[in-house]
Known about the structure:
By secondary structure, the chain is α/β, with parallel strands linked by helices. The chain has helices spanning about 15-30, 45-55, 65-85, 100-105, 110-125, 140-150, 165-180, 195-220; strands spanning about 5-10, 35-40, 90-95, 130-135, 185-190. The protein has one domain (about 5-220): P-loop containing nucleotide triphosphate hydrolases (Rossmann fold, 3-Layer(aba) Sandwich). It contains eight helices and five strands. A five-stranded parallel sheet has the order 2-3-1-4-5, sandwiched between helices. Helix 1 packs across helix 8. The protein is globular, with a radius of gyration of 17 Å. It starts with a strand and ends with a helix. The structure holds P1-(5'-adenosyl)P5-(5'-thymidyl)pentaphosphate. P1-(5'-adenosyl)P5-(5'-thymidyl)pentaphosphate binds near residues 17, 95, 146, 193 and 196.
Amino acid sequence: xxxxxxxxxxxxxxxxxxxIKRLADRLRRKGYDTVVTREPGGSPGAEALRHVILxxxxxxxxxxxxxxxxxxxxxDHVEQVIRPAVERGAIVLCDRFIDSSRVYQGLGGEEExxxxxxxxxxxxxxxxxxxxxxxxxxxxxxxxxASERRGEEVADRFEKETVDIHQGRRDAFLEIxxxxxxxxxxxxxxxxxxxxxxxxxxxxxxxxxIRVNGAGQEREAG
Length: 222
Ligand code: T5A
């Protein structure tokens, strides 16, 4: 059976990586073949581009250049890691994916939006997430968490941007969730990490249950 492709989206420091790790531990304890990955990155080629992008080395060349680099990294990641894992039946937990491109590169206007959507189509080559958990948090709290976690390290290309810009992205993530309710679930990421974990666990195990029951019904029908 095809696996399950779940993406985690939301603002900086929202707690995505923390929850992916907890969920992966839980799924593996239950015997599920589970792959944890991230964007930008996730494959050797894409990790090389991650370094360039997050250092801000492409920023002076404009939004198109950055958007294309994210798409190039995604294409490699999809073909080298995500698609093979989903095809062998694994559960793939991916820290950021297409909605981050929509929200970080595609908010400038109609031209940016159309360009980013075209790049997404090319990069995913038909492989869309089955489920997306959108971690919603006040950007001031998220940036504070990210800064505490970082310690003495320098903020990356996007963490340096203003709270207003991050607020616009928060709104854009919520709009995506509203437009695509079958795929997206909004999670209150300001809650205590254990509470967030309970909500994430319930959502993912419910999706697995539906998948198993659905497969059972198909077998009965056949
Ligand atoms: N990007 C990415 C684009 O512009 N376009 C794209 O197409 C893609 C794919 C990636 C950057 O690239 C951009 C978006 C990003 O700016 P990244 O380093 O991978 O950069 O950044 P993030 O994905 O934002 O990762 P962060 O690590 O900043 O955030 P997380 O993973 O959401 O947060 P996490 O789990 O590391 O937690 C942060 C801190 O908060 C604590 C944790 O212990 C940690 O210290 N924490 C909590 N504290 C209190 N309560 C909770 N519930 C907590 N949960 C975690």
